[in-house]
Amino acid sequence: MKTEILTLNTFSVQKAKDILFAGGVIGMPTETVYGLAGIGTMPNAVKKIFEVKGRPSDNPLIAHVHKDYDLNKLVFVEQEYAYKLIKAFMPGPLTLVFKSKGVVCKEATCGGETLAVRMPSHSGCQKLLKAVDMPIVAPSANLSKHTSPVTAEHVYNDLNGKIELILDGGKSSGGIESTVLDVTGSVPRILRAGLITKEMIEEVVGACEIAYHKDGDKVKSPGVKYTHYKPLCETMLFEQSQLDLVEIEYEKAIKQGKVPYVMCTDEVAEKFSDKNLLKLGLTPEQVASNLYDKLLEGEKKADLIIAVAMPDEMGVNMGVMNRLRKSCG
Fold first, then answer.
1. With CB atoms 3.0 to 4.6 Å apart as the test, which of 50, 174, 202, 253 could cross-link to 258 if both were Cys?
2. Are 65 and 119 in contact (CB under 8 A)?
3. Up-side HSE of residue 171: CA atoms within 13 Å toward CB?
4. What b-and-e string marks burial along 66-89, b requiring 16 or more CB atoms within 10 Å of the CB?
5. Is there a contact between 326 and 320 (Cβ–Cβ < 8 Å)?
6. Domain that holds residue 124
7. Residue 301 sits in a domain of what CATH number?
């Protein structure tokens, strides 16, 4: 199969729509990461997503819909606070987990009773979703466990020859996957941290819990059970209080004939100005936006990426640290 990258426009959206309604899968941009997309009511299309990615069969998918889509077609919105969250954060990098009405096939929910739904804010993705007017399920458009893609080229590097089309909507601005929030109970619970933070959610609904996945739990959200986001090179992760160890491991790698890179915030980078650097930016939002891009850049340049943790886990840093532990820990 030849994989084509097309700039997202009216022509390419029509081509993507034709592929999707024929039961195919495509690469599509969102504001968080690129997704591997298929129509969620078509079991064979959903099975293709799992096959192309090499994704575990018990790892459910998120359904993506356009901003005017009636969620009541897909799910039971049982908690009043959910409407406040929808109004405040959707479209945007927030996924809500509801009780499913069974419209999206069981292959996408992995047989579970819940469905994760989000409305991407990426204008090109909204154009595609509006044209299809069906729930499109999509995990990240990469091989399972590899670093998530934030450009069409990243998708091509992993999935060339496996899918027919990648819609190029530019670099994803958010850079890490959406926050996943379980809204089936009396208090919302964060299943996966992201750009919509605990603090932001609490401002809107007054309370928010953090869920911790345990062995044997039924998985309601992607990104909570398996190793994810790993670059194709050796990695290490150190706290900011361990910069002396970063120096030691860097020099050890040099002596072993390896090419090491330090991946850190711009502030920490000032302490390693004589080293190979993958600079992530200054603010938590910049770090999130650049994280996967730098991991994928690093795997091409480095034998070893030595990552430095964020100074805390407040706000967006919680999502960044979740990804850093899974990619470099």
1. 253
2. yes
3. 10
4. beebebeebbebebebbeebbeeb
5. no
6. 4-210
7. 3.40.50.11030
Residue 300 within a domain: yes
Per-residue pLDDT of the chain (329 residues), as tens digits, is 899 999 999 999 999 999 999 999 999 999 999 999 999 999 999 999 999 999 988 899 999 999 999 999 999 999 999 999 999 999 999 999 999 999 999 999 999 999 999 999 999 999 999 999 999 999 999 999 999 999 999 999 999 999 999 999 999 999 999 999 999 999 999 999 999 999 999 999 999 999 976 555 555 555 555 567 899 999 999 999 999 999 999 999 999 999 999 999 999 999 999 999 999 999 999 999 999 999 999 999 999 999 999 999 999 999 999 999 999 98
State how far the Cα of 114 lies from the Cα of 186, in Å rounded to an integer: 16
Q: Is residue 150 part of a domain?
A: yes
Is residue 27 within 8 Å of residue 12, measured between CB atoms? no
- Identify residue 143 by its one-letter amino acid code: L
Distance, CA of 328 to CA of 230 (rounded, Å): 7
Reading the block at residue 123, the tokens are: 């204008």
Counted domains in the chain: 2
Contact 162, 76 (CB under 8 A): no
H helices of 143-223, in order, are 152-159, 198-205
Backbone phi, psi, residue 112, to 5°: -80, 170
Q: Is residue 228 part of a domain?
A: no
Q: At what angle do helices 123-132 and 10-21 cross, to 10 degrees?
A: 50
Peptide linkage before 139 cis (omega within 30 of 0): no
Which of 176, 210, 244 is the C-terminal boundary of a domain? 210
Residue at 230: amino acid letter = K
Q: Is residue 222 part of a domain?
A: no
Q: Which amino acid is at 9?
A: N
Same domain flag for 202 and 315: no
- Look at the pTM and tell me if it is higher than 0.90: yes
Q: What is the CATH number of the domain that holds 150?
A: 3.90.870.10
